[in-house]
């Protein structure tokens, strides 16, 4: 009786292993626009807790986009926010694909989300 259960358990473990495909770096199929642009922008703004400007070419040739936090300045070029000094703060967004599903990750926090409105392909 125990011997019959072993093949069933092994079969279930193998099937589970096949179902979980590791994520690979990916890029978008086509430009970042429409519902996909809205979905990516919303994720980025939620993850970075600030307004984010993306372009239609972001994620079109690479799996990562590096965003710089721009320090606000007055008309003479002086910093308006005394807390921001030195080099600009960078944040990285990474696109990946597991099976047919696209996901985006904010590298610094580890936050990620599946992108339902975007189509992506593995990067070469």
TrEMBL record:
Keyword terms, alphabetized: Signal
Signal peptide: 1-25
Lineage, broadest ranks: Bacteria, Pseudomonadati, Pseudomonadota, Betaproteobacteria, Burkholderiales
Record protein name field: Lipoprotein
């Amino acid at each position: 009786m125990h011997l019959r259960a072993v093949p069933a358990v092994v079969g279930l473990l193998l099937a589970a292993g096949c179902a979980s495909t590791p994520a690979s770096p990916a890029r978008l199929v086509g430009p970042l626009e429409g519902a996909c642009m809205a979905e990516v922008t919303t994720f980025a703004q939620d993850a970075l807790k600030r307004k984010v400007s993306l372009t239609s070419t972001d994620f079109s040739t690479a799996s990562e986009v590096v965003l710089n936090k721009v320090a606000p300045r007055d008309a003479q070029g002086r910093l308006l926010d005394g807390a921001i000094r030195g080099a600009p703060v960078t944040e990285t967004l990474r696109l990946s694909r597991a099976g047919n599903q696209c996901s985006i990750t904010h590298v610094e926090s580890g936050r990620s989300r599946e992108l339902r409105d975007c189509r992506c392909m593995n990067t070469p």
